[in-house]
Amino acid sequence: MIHSNRTRVRKRQRAEQRFRAYGVLSLLAAGSVLVFLMYTIVASGYSAFYRATVLLDVQLDAGHIDVNPPFTREALLQGRYSSLVKSALYAQFPGVTDRRERRDLARLLSPGAELVVRDYLIAHPDGIGDKVTLEVPMSSDFDQLYKQHLPRSGEHIRFTAEQLQWYDRLLEEGRIHYRFNPQFLFGGDSRYPELAGIGGAIAGSFYALLVCFLLAFPLGIAAATYLEEFAGDTRLTRIIEANINNLAAVPSVIFGLLGLAIFLNVFGLPRSTPLVGGMVLSLMTLPTIIIATRASIRSVSPGVRMAALGMGASRMQVVLHHVLPIAMPGTLTGTIIGLAQALGETAPLLMIGMVAFIANTPATPLDASAALPVQIFLWAESAERGFVEKTAAAIMVIMAFLIVMNLLAVIIRSRTQTKVE
């Protein structure tokens, strides 16, 4: 009998050890996949924060830009700067005189090179007639070549032998540099990968989340407070509660269709704006906030309510001054989780037209804009090699925002909890 009991004990111990081993292996497998995913994204996208530039000695001739005095900002904005940039590049290779070769040589530079010259003249209008050295961006193909993302030889080569010689010569002369690319973080979208940025998408996501928060947070708290503290156990209340729980599981594209049908077609709100995007995201986030707030209110000890009522407080005072402050940490957690989910949503924004190409950064929620997940979707569809790193870099940015939002949730929750205690 004793031997049988010991055998059963050893079997239970071995089963427990196996269960622990399975748990450790599961954690290791999940962690390995996460590390591999993060490594792949970072390895593919970190280079988007830098770009290859070339030094050119540009002769700022007013005749080439077709601008007459006085050189005002408005006049300089209308100037033509392409010939200035090309002339500066041709001067580096005086032996290149054939028209076709010059056309191939000009492909080393990005169309954004002339914008650098324009911006310089706008900042220094007195410099017309001078010769200055400016750093201008290289085209996407040569930018990728410098980053070793495109091959110099082989079946998929995209360069001519002459272009590689010109590139190597500029590299030997020290005219090609590798610089931080502020255009990526602060600029708008572009058809050219080397000029494309996520500044407009970041602004669009910020405005959309701001509208979402301003609508969903007070409505969610009000609805949860009423259902948990004031509403009776009636058939209508049970129907509302069931619908709220069901809405939390509805696919996000359904909310996009609702926004398309109501906000755009019925109310006639402007299409492809953060205002409409935020309103659609607030519909999607509202059930999450309500459920989290109700759970937080329900976790408040009944003794708090009884003590406040015993001191002569009204029911409204009990809820506003005691119950809601204690439930606020959980409410904020649910809100942050809902906003983080809204930040990564693409389908509802596609349904309301935020998939359009927008090159400008929105100044208000009423301006047409893209959003970070939509921008990632658009770049992922592009066949240009330069957009591959842009896609990965944009994913890095959106993940950084999610990490910051979760850290803020932890900090706010801990501080609020401390004040309540």
Describe the structure using short key phrases.
MetI-like fold; single chain; 421 residues; 2 domains
Descriptive overview:
This protein is mainly alpha-helical and 421 residues long. The protein folds into 2 domains: 134 residues, no CATH class; 222 residues, Orthogonal Bundle (MetI-like fold), CATH 1.10.3720.10. It has a 3-stranded antiparallel sheet. The longest helix is centred in the first third of the chain and has 44 residues. The radius of gyration is 30 Å and the shape is extended. It starts with a helix and ends with a helix. The model has no long low-confidence stretch (mean pLDDT 87).
CATH-defined architecture of the largest domain: Orthogonal Bundle
Strand order of the largest sheet: 2-1-3
Class of the largest domain in CATH? Mainly Alpha
For the biggest sheet, the summary is:
3 strands, antiparallel
Please count the beta strands (DSSP E, at least 2 residues each): 3
Instruction: Output the structural class.
Output: mainly alpha
SSE succession: HEHHHHHEHHEHHHHHHHHHH
What is the distance, rounded to the nearest whole angstrom, between the alpha carbons of the first and last residues?
A: 55 Å
Query: CATH homologous superfamily of the largest domain?
Result: MetI-like
| Helix content range | 55-70%
Report the oligomer: single chain
What is the fold-level CATH name, i.e. the topology of the largest domain? MetI-like fold
Quickly count the helices: 18
Alpha-carbon Rg, integer? 30 Å
Strand content: 5-15%
* Large-scale geometry: extended
Q: How many separate structural domains? A: 2
Low-confidence parts, pLDDT < 50 over ≥5 residues? none
Global mean pLDDT: 87
